[in-house]
Specification:
By secondary structure, the chain is of the alpha+beta class. The chain has ten helices and six strands. Helix content is about 65%, strand content about 5%. The strands form two sheets. A four-stranded mixed sheet has the order 3-4-6-5, with helices on both faces. It has a two-stranded antiparallel ribbon with strand order 1-2. β5 and β6 form a beta hairpin. It is elongated.
């Protein structure tokens, strides 16, 4: 969940800065005397949408380390048995998955782990002290295999493409609606009036919510696949099933401020559609059924 929320937050921030910068530089001039220039708007939307997502991806590794305060382990000088075991386990899983050995880090916090990074061979796997203390080595291995599977599946790159597409539609449709309100409803012949800007802001918020639902749905499907990937890497689905069952019985601790909005919730259907992870019970059932959600 940390990986997804941080990515989306960074993406939104970059999009806002990029939109403002392009507008100041005059690149975002897609309205002329003849009305709305669809081609120019489409290009503007693509640039803003995908650039925001790509920059978020490139920054994801550093942002994750900074936001969690994670300590990167030195593979050449582990300080204790726990670090030796953690490095060896991640390296073995990476070798089985056919990817480069990720950077490994530990951070203080509630039971959790995440993987991120722009490239399969230069990724980051981070695990919390709460997870290390609250699970057996077999269960931690299953969680680490789950994160390595995320990397091997290219989930962050795929997420970037999905985010770029939905960003593009959000930027494009918000300005089309803004133009319609400004010119057709408010009869502003000069274009770019207060009605346009107010409508764009409201539409970006509304369409952004819909976009978040789409990205969250994709993320949930990827979680099922990573669970199945863990079972494949370990040669058995039982360790991941036990790890999920253990996680379901753990009381979540306080998240870092960057991730407080993504805390574990028992909300109903409205909150569920925004969840980046499926319910643990569904994930266990999917593993027992062969790794696919029902």
């Amino acid at each position: 969940m940390k990986r997804i929320v941080l990515f989306i937050m960074t993406n939104i921030a970059v999009m806002l800065v990029l939109t403002a910068t392009l507008s100041i530089l005059g690149v975002g001039r897609f309205m002329d005397a003849n009305g709305l220039n669809i081609q120019s708007l489409a290009i503007f939307s693509l640039v803003v949408g995908f650039t925001g997502a790509i920059i978020s991806l490139l920054l994801s590794k550093k942002m994750a380390l900074w936001s969690t305060g994670a300590r990167v382990l030195d593979p050449n000088a582990p300080v204790n048995r726990e670090e030796i075991w953690l490095l060896d386990t991640v390296n073995q899983l990476a070798d089985r998955a056919g990817i480069g050995r990720p950077t490994v880090a530990i951070y203080e916090g509630e039971p959790n782990a995440f993987a991120t990074g722009a490239f399969k061979n230069e990724a980051l796997v981070a695990v919390s002290t709460g997870l290390l203390r609250g699970m057996t080595e077999e269960e931690v291995s299953a969680v680490l295999a789950h994160e390595v599977a995320h990397i091997a599946n290219g989930d962050m790159v795929t997420l970037t493409l999905i985010q770029g597409v939905v960003n593009t539609f959000v930027v494009f449709l918000a300005r089309v609606v803004g133009y319609f309100v400004d010119r057709v409803l408010l009869k502003n012949e000069r274009g770019g009036g207060i009605g346009y800007f107010a409508t764009v802001i409201v539409c970006e918020l509304a369409f952004g919510i819909v976009a978040s639902i789409i990205v969250a749905w994709f993320s949930r499907q990827r979680e099922f696949r990573a669970d199945a990937g863990s079972a494949h890497l370990l040669g058995s689905r039982e360790p991941m099933i036990r790890a999920l069952a253990r996680l379901g019985n753990m009381a979540p601790g306080e998240l870092p401020k960057n991730f407080q909005a993504s805390g574990i919730s028992s909300g109903g259907a409205i909150s569920a559609i925004f969840a980046s992870h499926p319910p643990i019970e569904d994930r266990i059932r999917a593993l027992m059924a062969g790794g696919q959600p029902r």
